[in-house]
Amino acid sequence: MVPVRALQILPFVLRYSCAENLRLEGYTGEIVMLSKEPGAPIDRTRLSKALGKAGELRSMDYMTKDLSISMFNDMEVTGVDSEAKTVTYKPVSKDRSTQSSTLKYDKLLLATGGKPRQLFVPGAKLKNVFTVRNQADNDALMASVQKLHKVVVVGGGFIGMELATMLTAKGCKVTILEMTDLPLERVFGKKIGAAIAKWLHKNKVRIEPENQMNLENYLTEVTIFTPTLPAISFLSGRLHGWHRRHLPPR
Fold it and tell me: Given a cut of 50, is residue 102 above it in pLDDT?
């Protein structure tokens, strides 16, 4: 196999399993991984399913020494040029003067995962409004619910249901704000949605409509916002060589 540079811009689980399998399948070329996340890969699903420490999937020593993968953590990708086969990136920083760097690649894998949507409603900037994306988010959330036991979960999707279930089990009084009449109705339909709603009601989880939401009504409570968007903002206006039709709708 001819060694080439494989560059990956990926979320935790997919990027590490992909890189690991490239080596297991005999790939001997250079593998470079760029990520905004710090440190070793974690089991992100545990953030909503268990509300504890996510735990490492693979150690950094294993990835860098055993698999000989170049890890570029805490890096933000700012552009991709598919014609020149380059990726532009810079360290994650609020300082806009931070200098960018460029990497050339032979093969590029883009699998950026999702990022939390931002709330644009009254009260969105209040204290104790959280998203659940990484371990730091989870730690801050758990510190708050130790003091404030009334929790509002915005979004009745899979992540919202998992959070509501786990927080209720920990003794929290949980209200879910959902835009549909029934939880997960758009995924499973009304019959299963009604069964889920019945189970939630049995477990003392309230469901309220999301229309005209105002978080200032929940000043003494903890709010968790769960909907996500594709993490592809770095492609906007900086994607050369690909057609817009190849990008998912926003």
Answer: yes
* Residues 21 and 109 occupy one common structural domain: yes
CB 130 within 8 A of CB 224: yes
* Distance in angstroms (rounded) separating the CA atoms of residues 152 and 177: 7
- What tokens were used for 176? 């879910």
Q: Domains in the chain: how many in total?
A: 2
Residue 159: give its domain's CATH number.
3.50.50.60
> What digits encode the pLDDT tens for the residues 113-152?
677 777 777 777 778 888 887 788 888 888 888 888 888 8
> What is the domain range of residue 104?
5-113+231-246
Cβ contact 177:146 at 8 Å: no
pTM of the model: 0.69
For 56, residues 6+ apart whose C-beta sits below 8 A from its C-beta are 40, 41, 42, 43
CA distance 237 to 95: 21
Rg (CA), the chain: 21
